[in-house]
Amino acid sequence: MKAIARIAAATALLSTVATSAFAATGAASGGGLLIWLFLGFLGLIVATQLVPALMLLVGIVQGVTGGSTADQSTR
Prior knowledge:
Blueprint: H1 2-17, H2 33-65, H3 69-73
């Protein structure tokens, strides 16, 4: 337990001493066209993955709640 307390104390001490020595001093630019195209492409990938995920979620909910009437009539 003393080792954990020493590690915690050392972490607390080092985090209070840490400064922003390597932080950028100037403001970041708005980014170029290529960055925005890349982010848009990533957004498109995420949006297209939402469709099958929602279909799977609906199927799971239907399976848990009893399914449709067509499935029950064949039993």
